[in-house]
Amino acid sequence: MTVPAWGRGLCSSALNCVLPIDNHVFATGDDSGALKVWDLRKGDTILEARQQEEYISAMAADANGKILLTAR
Questions:
Q1: CA dist 5 to 2, 8, 9, 10, 14, Å?
Q2: From residue 44, how far is each of 22, 50, 57, 72 by CA, in Å?
Q3: What is the SS3 assignment for 55?
Q4: DSSP reduced 3-state for 5
Q5: Where are the domains of the chain?
Q6: What is the pTM (predicted TM-score) of this model?
Q7: Residues 6+ apart with CB under 8 A from 2
Q8: By the 8 A CB rule, do 9 and 3 touch?
Q9: Which of 42, 7, 54 is closest to 28 using CA atoms?
Q10: What is the pLDDT of residues 13-62, one digit of tens each?
């Protein structure tokens, strides 16, 4: 997946993982423990959360894309 131009530079830390959730939504996890869910139609984040004290190394979503898990 290629990050569109509007998404470049919007993360304060290096990305560790990207998880496509559906055709228009994907999640990112970074070195600072920040989780962001992006909507390509809006060109912006639709959810931001601090999930870990340190980096996020893995993510998984349920089949409906409603539950998102992160791991360090």
A1: 9, 5, 9, 10, 16
A2: 15, 17, 22, 25
A3: coil
A4: helix
A5: 5-71
A6: 0.78
A7: none
A8: no
A9: 7
A10: 888 899 999 999 999 999 999 999 999 999 999 999 986 788 999 999 99
